[in-house]
Write a structure and sequence with these properties.
mainly alpha; elongated; 2 domains; about 90 residues
Length: about 90
Amino acid sequence: MFENILLYISDSPLGFLIPSFLWKKKKRLLKMIHDGKKRIEKELDILKIMKSIRNVKILMKNSLLSPDVKFQIAHADKNLIDLEASEESSSES
């Protein structure tokens, strides 16, 4: 718990208050935090995610989805609207 507090302070602008010679793990832990932040920013880049999704959609549309498969997806049970259930729920409210 105490090391977590030291690490939080060390990563803040007040990090100069904790000298490295008093806490041997400071440099290693700060490097690990900075590397983790860089990795998260790189992996969760919204542009990269959107490009990947677009590429998968293009792949599916052009090569993997035949007309038969498209028909099955469009008419799957989860894509159908039950009109009788909709009328009952609307009359109850």
